[in-house]
Amino acid sequence: MSLADLQPLMLGLILACAALLVLLVDLVIKPSGKPILGWLTAAILAGTLVASWLLPLEGEVQAGVWQGNLWSTFLARVMISAGLLAVLGGLDYVARVWPYRQGEFYTLLLFSLTGMVLLPGCRELAAFVVCFELMGIPIYVLAAYSKNDNGKKPPEAALKLLLIGAASTALTFFGAALLVGMAGSSRFAELVPYEPGPLHAVAALLLLAGMAFKIGVAPFHMWVPDTYEGSPTPVVAFLSVAPKVAGFAALSSIFLIAMPTLAHAWRPMLWLLVVVTMVVGNLVAIPQTNLKRLMAFSGVAQVGYILLGFLGGAEFGAAMMLFYLATYVFANIGMFLIVHAVAEAGEGEDIVSLNGLARRSPWLALALLMFLLSLAGIPFVAGFWAKFYVFTAAWRAGHGEMVLLGALFATVALFYYLGVARAAFVNKSAIEGPVPVKRPLALAIVVCLLGTVGLGAWPNPLVEAALAAVQGLY
Amino acid sequence: MITLPWLSITVAAPFIATLLLLPIPQTQKLAMRLVALLGAAVSLVGALAVYHYYDLQQGGLQLAENYPLVPKLGITLRLAVDGWGVSLLLLTGIIITTGVMATWTLKDREKEFFALLLTLVAGVLGVFVAQDLFVFFLFYEIAVLPMYVLIAVWGSSNKVAEAGPFKFVWKMFDIGGKEYAAMKLTIMLLVGSAFILVAIMAMFFAAGGETFDMSVLGNMKYDLELQKWLFPLVWLGFGTLAGVFPFHTWSPDGHASAPTAVSMLHAGVLMKLGAFGVIRIGMMMLPEGAQFWIPVVGVVAAINVVYGALSAMAQKDLKYIIAYSSVSHMGVVMLGAATLTQGGWNGAIYQMFAHGIMTGLFFALVGLVYERAHTRWVPSMGGFAGPMPIVALFFTIGGLSSLGLPGTAGFVAEFMVFLGAWQSKSAWWALPGIIGAFITAIYVLRVVRDVFWGPGPSAEFHDLPDARRTELGALIVLGACILIFGIWPRLILDYIDPCTKTYLAKIDPSAPTLPFVPQQAGFGGAGAAAMPMHNSMGLGRPFGPGPGQPPGMLPNPGMMPRAAMPGPDMPSGMPRGMQPGMPPAMAPGMAPGMAPGMAPGMAPAMAPGMAPGMAPAMARPAMLGPGAMPMPPPGLPPSPSPAGVAPTGGVQ
Question: Residues with Cβ < 8 Å from B66, sequence gap 6 or more?
């Protein structure tokens, strides 16, 4: 095997090397120069993103253990964009709060991204599980990064994430072990026979439960609000999006590619999960007063919608899921970054801390409104198309009832999203003067805003790209 | 003919004005107002241009513009306008321009206010001209959403007394508060739009999932079962916005809490959007579903009319009175729509126009009164005609139109609706309509008396300033419109009527026609002058044999085409209302017969007066005249032939 054979893995390799590079640079530079590490990471991520268009990334590695195609590249771009935005948004915060631990922060983030980027292409269970854990373990550390901060609950947040993550890994492993044991092979193509038995169905449900923990599907979502609330906001911005994208990639790999013949077993289960997720996420979000907890439950609800695209199945549903994920990255990260900016100004992380934002920083308030509208699925912002497309996919798959349910709960969601908008636009605040926003953070918010509004005005290119990405996937 | 893209201009003007507003600094208040007014005025000019360039002879959809949006999913920005669209565009243009004028003195965050208001209007205008179902829905959403902020920020909170078995609710919500009203309105309307979205997607996929083009989707024959469950979705979805009972409850709270221009726009135009959606999408695209549900729609509309009027009578807050009167009047619109008759539909569209103008005027006036007197509590007011005679005058004009006094626009609309109801399969629907008009007379006159003409004013209200400058301009425009369109309904009826007939023929070829609406285009033009008032002869049921026949009146079997539509192969000079087989020699014989001694040139001048009030009186002697009542010629088929209903200008 020559190095040229690893060409399709190039994005993952770049990121892994970058992680090591950051670790090395961290050893040699003076503490005062450490903020350079953040910029270095951002530059590498931006470079990798550009490289994803320049490098030939298609092809098989090790006779089909790993498959590079438009699907894996599309997902890699989404994840790298999420990482880039989160790094930019947290640059100043990381440098200020953990001046001596910056190198580790970015190294962990890059390793996690490496696992994510490699995940969609896996066509073999061992590689799949390794990528899955490479993604997950650094995140446990990142969530616990602000262990010494007073008044917050980082240990609880991180511990919850760790324990539940371990439980979900155990479930995933158990399911995988069952499958491998029965099939005698770990290749996806040979994993499930044409006529699966009951034990296969059990394995499928175990895998489903394991992944449901990771992406925060109700009723496996219990860790989400606590972890979001307790973790540092830039980490949450990353955590709320990138692992979800990877989780959906994993779901697609396992269920659509490896076990299509088991659809009768996991589809009804998934249907139930979608209903529960939409109901729980949307209803529990209503009484929240902490912005991050609100966003956590809104995230649970959003997962319900994304799963709708998954439920839509076939190529169209998967494509619309991709589109949803891409729009979700911009809106959700943008939202968390604004929360971060306001919290950095010393206002706290409650909804009331946004009071009077429209008067203090009109542009920040406008961006907030756009993100909220996108999350709520209002026309002419990206999120509307995303919701509409997954509804279309679900309808095509014969799930008209889900469209009605989804549309009704989108209205419920509007209630709490508008509650946030009301704080910013209607309520008055005692504090005057604009909210200070550092340059990199502002840049990240602007990118999110452009993505949200741009995709709302002209969704077509991304739709086409998503449709192309799923061509011939199954 | 100048080939400017008038529809795009009309729709885009408010939106461009919004963008222009954003960079203006907060201190430049006059500049902001002027930009807002300019955006609104360009829309009005655009609407007038559309009105001017719309070719009545040709009919159908015109001024079409197509811009592909998402070709993969068959979504195209398709703009085109029909006769209904023309009149509703005109209404929107008038209301937004006067709305901006009426809120000229707004003092808080003008930039955001006007920006949101104009965005909203762009959505409204878009709905009336969109010919792509998806774009229709997009514009609809834009028209609904900014309302939340507009009411929550600039609205006013009301005191609503705790009462009834649901007292505990007052503790849970801030009932009567502006944020409560805004949220209630937004949530209710968006639940409605969730229904609409589902219906739209069902239609899209039932039609093959290729295109959202409304003319294509509208020509599909959907499965009857599908139609039966889609129609209620559309009806309730759009009906929520139209204030259909019992989903009207957002309307009084919302309208009472909203600032003046928003109330004007919302009650004046947005509610019409709902009714327009029910007719345009529900009834026209799902005709069999509509036929199935129409008894329910009609009964609910009848409840709306009476219940809304009774509720208005019970209110003491001036704005709540007007808001409930809107519920009642929108019931008239829905009642007209439910009749599925030419008269009913003409009346429904005309009522949209008339009520839009009238409610716009009302809310502008209430806003003025509230701004000056700082109260809307009717018992505390009185004798305001002394300090503010102009306001009193216009309120009285609006009130008279509201109760349907002949000579005002409200009369024309209500009369046609009642006539349509009488001709429809459920003739008794006319009764609640008339009862509603009666109750309206009670509460409107009572308010006019209590607020303006009664004893008073008390000392604190002695020097209320009257309407001034732009406010006065707005009042004059709206008041004049009520009178002009009351006296000369053909100004827009000529646009509405051919459109109604074409559409109605698609749904129900045997739908009763209106006996006396002039058919030809170009009022005041040479073509109109040469046109005899032929269709006065095409009498429908009220004057034919039937329950509506006045005693002593002769039946006219030969002259009673129920579907008075020209056949496709008919000579163009031949008046409509005649069967294809009818000898042309009949035509000249009719003109003198119907209006004895009337020169042909007088026809257009007579027309406006004829349409609303005088028509029955004029037509009766005419009918008994020698020219009008011959036995049917041998070649005349005794019953209307289905071939006669083929539309001349199709929707395509």
Answer: B76, B77, B78, B79
Please write the tens of the pLDDT for every residue from B393-424. Answer: 888 888 888 888 888 888 888 888 888 888 88
Closest alpha carbon within chain A to B75? A460
In angstroms, the CA B479 to CA B358 distance is 8
Q: Tell me whether B565 touches chain A (CB under 8 Å).
A: no
- CB contact under 8 Å between A404 and B138, yes or no, is no
Which of B73, B75, B147, B240 would you mutate first to test chain A, the one with the most A CBs within 10 A?
A: B73
The closest alpha carbon to A305, from A321, A323, A327, A293, belongs to A321
Least CB–CB distance from B186: residue in A380, A400, A418: A418
Does residue A2 lie in a domain region? no
Closest partner CB to B141 (pick from A378, A403, A418): A378
Reduced to 3 states (helix: H, G, I; strand: E, B; else coil), residue B311 is helix
Residues of A in contact with B72 (CB under 8 A): 460, 463-464, 467
Average pLDDT over residues B69-75: 73
Q: What is d(CA A352, CA B563) in angstroms, rounded to the nearest whole number?
A: 64
Q: Which residues of A touch B141 (CB under 8 A)?
A: 378-379, 384
At residue A114, the pLDDT reads 94
DSSP percent split of chain B into helix, strand, coil, nearest 5: 65, 5, 30
Cis peptide preceding B246, ω within 30 of 0? yes
Other C-beta atoms closer than 10 Å to the C-beta of A163 total 12
Q: Is the pLDDT at B524 greater than 80, yes or no?
A: no
Which residue from B70, B191, B205 is facing A411, i.e. has the nearest CB?
A: B191
Residues of B in contact with A467 (CB under 8 A): 72
Residue A405: both structure tokens together: 């349910």
Q: Which of A278, A286, A395 to mutate to test the interface with B (most CBs of B within 10 A)?
A: A395
Q: How far is B134 from chain A (nearest CA, A)?
A: 10
ipTM of the complex as predicted: 0.74
How far is it, in rounded angstroms, from Cα A176 to Cα A129? 9
Residues for chain A: how many in total?
A: 474
Is A148 domain-assigned?
yes
- Per residue, the 3-state secondary structure of B56-102, as one string, reads CCCCCCEEEEEEEEEHHHCEEEEEEECHHHHHHHHHHHHHHHHHHHH
Q: How many domains does chain A have?
A: 1
Dist. CA B430–CA A124, nearest whole Å: 73
**Residue A22 resides in a domain:** yes
Please list, in sequence order, all residues whose beta carbon lies within 8 angstroms of the beta carbon of residue B27, skipping any fewer than 6 positions away.
none
Q: Is A411 on the interface with B (CB under 8 A)?
A: yes
Nearby residues of A229 by Cβ (< 8 Å), 6 or more positions away:
A152, A153, A157, A290, A292, A293, A296, A349
Check if B24 contacts A (Cβ < 8 Å). Answer: no
Among all chains, which residue has been given the structure tokens 């409204």? B124
Domain that holds residue A405: 7-469
Residue A1 forms part of a structural domain: no
pLDDT digits (tens, 9 = 90+) for B616-628: 433 333 333 333 3
